[in-house]
Amino acid sequence: MRLGTPIHDAATLGRLIRQTRKQQNLTLETLAGLCGLSIRFLSELENGRETCSLVRVLLVLDALGIELTAEPPETDAP
Predict the structure, then answer these.
(1) Of 50, 53, 39, which Cα lies nearest the Cα of 14?
(2) Among 71, 70, 43, CA closest to 56
(3) What's the 3-state SS for 22-69?
(4) DSSP-assigned letter for residue 70
(5) 74, pLDDT greater than 90
(6) Dihedral (C-alpha) 19, 21, 25, 28: value to the nearest 10 degrees?
(7) Alpha-carbon distance 63 to 20, whole Å?
(8) What is the mean pLDDT of the chain?
(9) Which of 9, 18, 63, 78 has the lowest tally of Cβ within 10 angstroms?
(10) How many other CB atoms sit within 10 Å of the CB of residue 21?
(11) How far is the C-alpha of 45 from the C-alpha of 53, rounded, in Å?
């Protein structure tokens, strides 16, 4: 069973992306080529820039094999 990492801000997501990239022995340049994105964008993403495009973030997550899930808040059943 894999445990996920709760993502509450851009900085946490950036750290997860950087950690995963390094675990896979990928440079920013290599990941940029895999995603079709710029090194500058990836660097800003890894450093927690809050205005990064969601579409581009999803491309990066896909290239790294990171699955993004969202859980709605629990509600009390009537």
Answers:
(1) 50
(2) 43
(3) HHCCCCHHHHHHHHCCCHHHHHHHHCCCCCCCHHHHHHHHHHHCCCCC
(4) -
(5) no
(6) -120
(7) 11
(8) 90
(9) 78
(10) 20
(11) 9
